[in-house]
Amino acid sequence: MLLDLSNLHIWDDSGVEAIYKVIQQFESAGNTVRMIGLNKESRRMMRQLKSYLKNSSH
């Protein structure tokens, strides 16, 4: 599964959380998910919050 996020800018942690929820749904259905196209600021935010969101009950 390829998620093209080229026209997306993540503004805050709720945006990161929403994207990770979608990814988790696809992965739980047995899909491998790869994201492309995120701008530098959005990639940074995703990296910063990734471990927190994976370990939380959000």
UniProtKB/TrEMBL annotation:
Pfam families: STAS. SUPFAM superfamilies: SpoIIaa-like (SSF52091). Residues 1-47 form the STAS domain. Transmembrane segments: none annotated. This is Sulfate transporter.
